[in-house]
Structures are given as C-alpha cells and as structure tokens.
Amino acid sequence: MKQPLFFSRAVLISLCLTVASQLATADEISVAVASNFAEPMQEIATAFEKKTGHKAQLSPASTGKLYSQIKNGAPFEIFLSADDTTPAILEKEGLAAIDSHFTYATGKLVLWSAKPSFVDDQGTVLKTGKFTYLAIANPATAPYGVAAVETLKKLDLLAAIQPKFVQGDNITQTFQFVSTGNAELGFVALSQVFKDGKISSGSAWLVTPSLYEPLHQDAVLLNKGSSKPAAKALLDYLKSDEAKHIIRRYGYDI
Amino acid sequence: MSNASELLQLDLQLTQGKFHLQCQLNLPASGFTVICGRSGCGKTTLLRCIAGLTRAQGAVRFKNIDWQHEKKFLPAWQRPIAYVFQQPTLFPHLTVRDNLLFALKRVPPAERRISLDDAVNWLGLENLLDRKPNALSGGQQQRAAVARSLLANPALLLMDEPLASLDIDSKLEILPYLERLRSQLGIPVIYVTHAPDEMSRLADQLVLMEEGRVLAHGALNALLTNPNLPLTQHQEAAAVLDAVIEAHDAHYHLTQLRVGSAVLLVPLSPLPIGSHTRIRILARNVSIALDAPLHSSIQNCLQAKIVDIQIHQQEADALVRLAMDDAVLLSRITRRAVDQLQLQAGMTVYAQVKAIALIPH
Amino acid sequence: MNTGDLSAIWLTLKLATTTTLLLLLIGTPLAWWLTRTRSRLAGFISVLVAMPLVLPPTVIGFYLLLAMGPHGVIGQFTQALGIGLLPFTFTGLVIASVLYSMPFVVQPLQNAFDSVDKSLLDAAAMLRANRFDAFLHIVLPLSAPAYITAAILCFAHTVGEFGVVLMLGGNIPGATQVLSVQIYNHVEAMQYSNAHWLAGGMLLFSFVVLSALYSLRKSGGLRV
What we know:
The structure holds three protein chains of three kinds.
Chain A: H1 2-25, E1 28-34, H2 38-52, E2 55-61, H3 63-71, E3 78-80, H4 85-92, E4 102-107, E5 109-113, H5 125-128, E6 134-137, H6 143-154, H7 158-161, E7 165-168, H8 171-179, E8 185-189, H9 190-193, E9 194-195, E10 198-199, E11 203-206, E12 215-221, H10 229-238, H11 241-249
Parallel strand pairs in A: 1-2, 1-3, 6-7, 6-8
Antiparallel strand pairs in A: 3-12, 4-12, 5-8, 5-11, 9-10
Chain B: E1 7-16, E2 19-28, E3 32-36, H1 43-51, E4 57-62, E5 65-69, E6 72-73, E7 81-84, H2 96-105, H3 116-122, H4 138-151, E8 156-160, H5 168-184, E9 189-192, H6 196-202, E10 205-210, E11 213-219, H7 220-224, E12 238-249, E13 254-259, E14 262-267, E15 276-282, E16 286-289, E17 300-311, E18 317-324, E19 327-334, H8 335-341, E20 348-353
Parallel strand pairs in B: 3-9, 3-10, 7-8, 8-9
Antiparallel strand pairs in B: 1-2, 1-4, 4-5, 5-6, 10-11, 12-13, 12-15, 13-14, 16-20, 17-18, 17-20, 18-19
Helix pairs in contact in B: 2-4, 3-4, 4-5
Chain C: H1 3-36, H2 41-54, H3 57-68, H4 73-81, H5 90-115, H6 118-125, H7 131-142, H8 144-159, H9 163-169, H10 179-188, H11 192-218
Helix pairs in contact in C: 1-5, 1-8, 2-5, 3-9, 5-8, 5-9, 6-7, 8-11, 10-11
C-alpha cells in the first residue's frame, strides 16, 4: 500500500511542477475565427499548443458579426476572416497591424445535394432546373453567396434560377437547408462536405474555379495582439507546412 | 306515496375520501321536502348527486323516468332540474335581466310555464333588472337566482341552504318569497338546511341525515316530535302546527289562531284573517297543569292527552308528548314535576303556553 | 425605405395577424382542455407548450427544419397530403410561429379559464346549458380581458420573432423575408441607416403595444 501512495504523491508533485513551468511561459491568445474555419482552426490550435504551450481561445462567429465586435472593442488579438476584404478594412481603420494580413486558406465552392447522384460532376442539373429550391448563402453578407451568384451569372442561369433561391444567413445554415433535404441542392463550401480527401456523402459538382473570384480567407493581427509574441507565433504557425497540411485536409486550397 | 309516477326514487352510493354516502330514499315528487342534518352529513352531496353535478354510483328515477342507473347517466344539463346554490351564482358579466333570460332562452317556448314578468313579480325584482350582480345585496342576488331557477322551468327544484350565506335581514326578506313559492307553485322542492326556523316554515316532508345516511324521513311534525330522533333532544325541540288566522285584536296587539279545535293567542300577525300559517311551539315553553287554571297570566291553555313521557334519570327534565286532536305537542318539564303531578300516559291535562312565547310564521 | 423593406413590413403584419388568429382558435380548446382535464398527459402537454420560453429560437427553428423536411415527421405527412414541403413557404412560417408563440396565448387563457368560478359552470349546467354552451356564454365573456392580453402578446412576439424565421424561411422576399430578418440583413450587410429606420420603427411599435397593454392592465381592465 505504501508504494502506490508514494508513487501517486510523486506524480502529483511532478504534475504541479509541469503546470507551474507552463504557466511561467505559456500565454493565452484570443482568436476570432469565421465559423466555417472553426473546426480546422481547433485542430491547428491543439497542434500549436502541443508545440509551444500557448493556448488559443477560439471565438467562432460570422465574419460580419466579428467585424462589428472588433470595431466595438472586443478583446480579440487575431482575426481569421472568411474573406479578404474585412481584414484589409480593419487595417485601414487602424484596428489591425499594418500589412499583417495574409491568405491562410482559399475556399472552394461546391454544388452539393444530400441525395446520391442528384448532382452530376458537370453541374448540368442547373440547366435542367428539375428542383424546387436551390440554397445559397446570402450574397449580401456571405462570400460563398457572392461566389454562387457569380457562378450562375457566368453560366447565364442567374435569371432562370433566382426565383428558386433560398438564402441561408451564412454558409452553415445554407448547408443545413441542403443536408436536411429541404432544398434539393445548394452552393456550399467544399470544407463542409469534404472528409478524408473526398466528398463524404450525397452528390456534388466541384465548381470550376474560373467561374468565381477566388474565395481568399485572410488572417490579420489585431491591435490588441500586436505586442504579444504568442499571437505572432500563432500567425507564423498558420503559415507552416504542418498547418497547411491540416487546412488542405478540410477541403481548402493553400 | 307508493305510486312510482309521483316519486323521486334514489339509490345512491358515493365514496369521497373518508366520506361515504349511502342513500336509499323514495321521496314524494310534490311539496316541499327539507333535508336536514349537521354540516358534513352529506346533504349537499346528496343534492349534487340528484342533480348529476356529482357522479355517484346507483340509480336516480324521477316520475318513472330513469336519470341514472348502472348503464345510464343523464348529464346535469339534460335533467329537468333547477338548482339554487348556497352562494348566489349569478353570472357576473350579465345584468339581472340577462341572467333571467339565460334560463328562459334555453327552455323551448312550448314548455315555458312561467313568464319573465311572473318571475320578476314573484321575487320583487322590478327595479333590479338592469343592474349587474355586483351592484346587488346578497339577498337581492339570491332572489334573482331563485327567479332564474324558476325560469328554467324545472320539474324539480333543488335548493342548497339558499339563505345560509345571507345576513339575518336578507333572510327575513327572502323567506316570505319562498313561502309563496311553496304555496303557489306546483313544483316539488328539495331544500337543504340546518336552520330550524326555515325547516318549520317550509317543510312538508323532512329527511334527516347523519354521516351520509338517511336517519328518518316523513311528515314534518311526526319527525319533530318523534322521541327516538335527535331532534327532540335539542334545546330548540319544538312542534310545528298548522293554523288559520281567525281574528286580530288591535287593542292588545294579539292575533287569534285556530289549531284544530283549539284556539291560540299570539302577538299580532300581519297576515289577513282566514290565511293559513304555521306555528312553532318550543317544548320548553309548554307547561302542564292538571286543571284548567283560573287565575294565570298565561293566555293559552289547551286540553290535551299525554301520549308518553320520556325520562332520563341523569337529567333534570322530562319530555312529555301531548296529543291534541291529530296534532302532537311537546312539553319539556322537570322530572320532579312529573312525579309531583303523577303524570302518566293517557291522562288528560292542560298544556299552557305564554302568548308572548309564540311567533306565528 | 426600399420596396424590400415595405414588403417585409407587410409580410410581417400578415404573418403576425394570421398567427394570432390561428393561435386564438387553437389555443382556446387547448387551454380549456388543460384547465379541465385530469389526464396525466396534461402535464406533458403543458411542458411542451412552454418549451419555446426555454429553447433558443434558432434551435426550435433547426428542429422544425428537420421535422418539416422530406425525412421529418411533418414533412412526410404534408407530402402524403400533397401539400409538399413547408420550409421556405409562408405556410411553414405560420406553423412555426404558431408553435413558437403558443405559450403566450395558452398560458394567459389557461389562467383566465382557471379563475372562472366553477360554481358558475354548475349553475349553467342547471340552466340546461351544455358544456359548449356554457363555455361560449360564460367562460368566454368572463375571459375577454385575457384574450386581449393573449392577442397582443402573440402579435408582438410574432413580429419580433427572428431565430425561427431565419432557420426556416430562406430569406425569400415576399414569402419569408420578414421585418426582423430584413433588419438583420441590413446590419450584416453594414447598411446601418436602413437598419436604424426599421429597428427604430419596430422599437416604437413594441413600445406603443406594450404601453397600451400595461395601461390597460393597470386600469384593472386586464388580468393575466
């Protein structure tokens, strides 16, 4: 009985020492992240913590909401946007470090249906028009919505299909419309239906990249994090091959 | 009494917690039947079961029509009953007139026996018709409730202590209306009360209840003077006799009543000569003399025959039952007096009652 | 104010009116049943009715989206009836609003029904009124103030409804793009001045409605 007791005490002491040493050097970084990138970012943050001991605290929300929060004094140090315009605006408005923004991932638009073989790999289903609803993200607020509208415009189908639009507030909601089957198909982010290197369910057409402006997602160092080495370290880590590997696995280009 | 077409036949059982109602009863479907008994004895429950407001086991049969048996339950609203509750349950959002019309409208025109005007007249509601219930006194509300129940054209009228929630003035205000109903309206009434004066003024029949059971039922005076029933043990034990107003004496403020072959003097009554009334004579106000007293202040002296004498050795008093024609009178005197006068059943004696002690109804 | 805003206002009023009328119709027998029944089911139903008070609207919206979808219970039913699917339609929004605003109608009515003196119902039965008759002529008029409360609360709540519509509506102008969503769209698109106008109008509307309600209640005309 004595042996295990001594052993557990030893473990406890060493654990305390470890935590203490971590506390001495470890930092917390507050990260505002666009909802669509929350999942890969969590994985990146875990890998980053394992490597550096710094802990990244993620706050996922839509890009628009995060922008308003940052403008109104939210304590975020890093912002991972779902577009490339918002970080540039923040820099211009003096809320972010000048020239700190960079593209960490490029989203890919996919026409997807929860039903198998509903969407062919050329997207000709759009021309047949044999569906009641097509879900897109609200183009006024969501970059994927803009890309979807651009695509349909290039295909000369916008006027024909527009009456069948149902708009999700964001790309997550758009995905829900399609995944629950309420809309037969919709333009969603590849990252939402991509797993282990392939489309995980249903049927999809990976929209030809030339049909829409690239969906650059930019990160930026906010003023509140500009004097914090850990925040800079996280941004550097985001550019590393390790992080890029994770990002690609989630269906983004980089 | 035995003709089923003139009976309300009850055979009801109900258990509510610790209370058991067990009631087999054939009541005449005419006249005024008073159900009395202590509070909690099941009077109200019995009434609600008759009405179908409370669902009891068993059978209810009215004038050969089944309201309820094992396989049948006529819902309350389909039974030709009207009900006057202890609290005047006027609909608060309707005027008195609309309350009355609520009842009248639900009776097919061909079946209506009482007009709105009649009901209003009988219960003196002329000046109250446009008022809402909350602008009426308790007595006025109950009068309106009675009128409303009459307009429902009931074949049977149930009244559950309709005066109990009223102050003494309101009671005195309503009682004459109820007496008029009794004498003028051909609707059988079952009336729950534990007030002796209501009982003696209104009842033709009496049903005595105790702990959910029927202790006795029968004609009013027979039950009041039955020495085996608790009514005669009561401080207020009394006999109720039918009387006719014979003369008024304006000088002495007295009224002369005829009770069978006898004559009684009572304080001046407002009723006209020739009208029928009742007189309640408390046992403790009746004394007994062997001879007709010549010099006495007591104005009423009635010849009567002793029926029997109830003596309790542990108590001071004895109860003497006296027969006067068909009527029975009660006298409560001391045991000592019984021995001194050597009173025995069969003796002819003189019952004396102070005129002042009598209040004609 | 652009045409989209005007159509959103019109649609919102239409939705709130339809929902209120429907809910008063559905809520009345439901509240009456809950008041009178001794069934054990009543507790369960009461909890179900009160759910929208607890659950975040977007959660309710999401589950309705699932239920009304092609694989959901309601969806299967509406498809079998030949109505098709309900999400992204005005009808779908009405149904969602009815469910979402239900406690605001059922609870005041239930309280009012509960406070009607039971002896009045006995009295009505003894005056040959059957249950429906008694309900119509006694309970209903006595509960009139609660109906006003319920209608105002339901209408206001439906006007302010956002999460459910957002999840279920698909933002279709003229069909599902209601005022609250339109304001949200303006904010998200950073069209703040449009948003301010609509939001200000809505604020004024709620203020007027609620002041009316409270002053009525204070004057003793209403009880909830």
